[in-house]
Amino acid sequence: MPEKINETRLNNGSETLQLYRELRKTVADRMQQNDYRLTRTIFANIAERKGHVCTVTYGINPFTRALKTAIVAARDGGVGRDTVLACLLSSEVSDDETIKLVQDKLGGDVGRILYGLTRVKSLYLKSHGTESENFSGLLLSLAEDVRVILIMIFDRLVLMRFLDGPDESEYRTEVAEETAWLYAPLAHKLGLYQIKSELEDLSLKFLEPEAYYHIKDKLNATKRAREEYMQRFMSPIEQMLNDSGFSYHMKGRTKSIHSIWQKMKKQHCDFEGVYDLFAIRIILDAPRDKEKSECWQVYSLITDKYKPNPKRLRDWLSIPKSNGYESLHITVMGPEGKWVEVQIRTERMDDVAEHGLAAHWRYKGVKSGDSGIESWLSDMREALEATDKRKVMDQIHTSLKTDEVYVFSPKGDLYKLPQGSTVLDFAYAIHTNVGNHCIGAKISGKNASIRQLLQSGDQVSILTSPSQTPKRAWAEFVATGRARAKIRQSIKELELKEGALAREQLERTFRNRKLQLDQNILHQTIGRLGYKEITLFYKDLADGRLSMETVLEAYILRRQIDEGLVEKNEVHSADEFLQSVTDTSGSKDDVLVIDRNLKGLDYSLAKCCNPVYGDDIFGFVTRMGGIKIHRKACPNAVRLRERFGYRIVKARWAGEESGNKGMYPVLLRIVGNDSLGVVNNISSIISKEERINMRSFNIEVNDGLFTGSLTLMITDTTALERLVKKIKAVKGVKNVMR
Questions:
Q1: Are 281 and 343 in contact, with CB atoms under 8 Å apart?
Q2: 133 pLDDT tier (thresholds 50, 70, 90)
Q3: 114: closest CA among 182, 58, 46?
Q4: Shared-domain flag, residues 613 and 726
Q5: Which of 508, 565, 570, 678 could form a disulfide with 732 if both were Cys (CB 3.0 to 4.6 A apart)?
């Protein structure tokens, strides 16, 4: 969404000075000795080159916005020096020269963050909404460095708070929709739960004000009763914790307005129907090596007093979330039969829960994200770079919104995947080749299909087959952006490989016919066949949608035209061709009638669909003056009608009284269970049929199923339908296709 812009002078008023002092106080322990002096030097350099005119967006002074963003990042996000300095400089730095100056003065990390923010700003100015291609570029910029994402979230919170001021803003709806759709899920993904809740509440306030104020008024009206109930619930727990000698503090937390609204919609109830309006948080002051044991001891004390709901136990102590979140959540039956959620964690865990990734990195002692977040960023980059731009936003949004499932490999390795992930998602999480050849899995010893949804705790063993290849339909049911991107990338590579094989086959056919292949003439031929891209031509050739005979015929004609052997437009249309034919009597033994009553014409049966007497057919006038007979269900039919409709003629079979129908080749594909005797039964049925000859029967067995390619010579569709019906009746046969 483009930011609304006007020009104004930078106002260095009392608010700016106050914010600057607040920032210095907040980050006093994180900055280096010369940081502020060097920052002033950079600002002076920018002012000398550009003057003091600044760009104001959404009516908020950019330097004031940058200061507020830096304060939020430091106080609510717990970020370090580099991120704070990048926030502070973000309002003024917009070109490569200044970024280089920043890198020289303040370090490479600050410059890299500012480069990402600069890209984001330029894309915002070009973009016209979250559906545009520019916006997927924006996400790719965010994915380069997770600190860029953090700053964008903090900046969005500052903007939403500003738009919540007394002045009405025409931009509120646009900003709120984008915030709810992208920035709140991003904050959730990175563990900034308080910021996520505030973003959601402010978005709801702008988008659905009636719902927002209805719930807010209800919360205010029930505040005293809620606080009294929480105290009654907490008192026995406090007594037990004190008696056991724990060092702790407790606090109650009311659900956010947005969360209550979502629950009301999901449960189709009013405010009074939402029972778990609040949660109790117990925060222990425990040494690092005793954190888990003390949390479980508190769990034991609480469940001795209040009956727990086993379905609502959430253990993020044993397996933390990928953003570092650790906590133990239980739901117990409190006084008056009300369900209450209790969260048990330590001071360190609470710091991570409050400040998200920044606090997690502090305790882990690393500068960038841990393997979970780095894996997510990698998946995000792959999805953005390899996926259809029209679908990329939905994929990223899905990966942001969903919670996680935890599954194990046969060796006990733990994998975290989004909720809704399938066996195929897990296969691609292991390795691209495992995903490409996946045919199913064994989950806890039971067979499962590639579409099977995974549940936390599943132990999954992937089954593969070398003959398996990725299918386009796979991309429609997988849940992860990584899997979807890899499927499409693998299909593209497969198509290129098949195209290369089709090219080799075409060149071999030319050599066998003793034809010299001229690339210029071939390119002209491809264009005359209606293809704008050579890759599509070879793809259709590989898939059988375009026959080799059609290509040879068109190539020979093109070469003859170039050599002056035939007129360029010898055949203009089917009507002209039929008007040139004078013989309408034909032989009484003809089995085809062309157009209304023409017989005795030179025709041949198309090899791409192998018409059989009795099929619905049509004729196609070739450039050489003959007619190819195709089935109306031919895979080439649509393309021929769209591109060469003027060369289509009607055709039908003559009556059976001619008695000279002949034999026609038919290819059948049979799929069934690989059981003893099924192939022999099929062969026996065919051998008993009169006037049906079997030319070949190729069998391929894969994972308990067989696929058979059966080539027959048959008289008509009646005999064919009778045979297909008999084969389908054989025990073990699943399907018969022509």
A1: yes
A2: very low
A3: 46
A4: no
A5: 678
